[in-house]
Write a structure and sequence with these properties.
Length: about 210
Amino acid sequence: MFAKRALFIAGLLFVSAQQAFAADTRFIDNMPELVKDADRPGAMIWTKPGLDRSAYTRVMMAPVQIFISPDSPYQGIDPNEMKVLADSFHEALVRTLEPEIPVLSQGGPGVIYLRSAITNVKLSEPKRGLLSYTPVGFVVHAVASATGARVSMNEAALEVEMLDAVSGERLGVLIDKAPKAPEGDALSWDTIKSNFTFYAERFKARMLAGK
């Protein structure tokens, strides 16, 4: 009896987690039924049943989107800063995938279309440029504005959707609500980029294994 109750409670908790993941996202529509990612505690995934990875050899990527949380005490952010950050994530993904997995500027047969976002980012009142608080900022500080917004990534999530570039059929979904930071460190733009790289490397390995 106890075992049955424990299984029932575990099932309810999983359903609640699934519903929470689906309810929180503003990036992925019609969330499929996710399962735990065995490689990454805190992450949930969905893969199209029977997906033939060998049918895909190239990738097209949409620009990385950044979503400010509705609960953020401050909503403003310089669009130039946003673009620089998004571009830096995009470049990191391209560097990880190529040359083994070509990244194209347009779709076609055998191409996976990747959509990705950083969601639930929270900002506080601006003092210096947002980029000044990140390792990226040392590279692009000259193009950052004199004012910006301080950022909390502690509740941020990574969201990725894979689509067939021709049909638009969904092939996979990933949501990571617990991106890893080095032990003792706060989550930052740089550690978020490291997590993007981890998933890009795994994606690359699986595509190459499917050939």
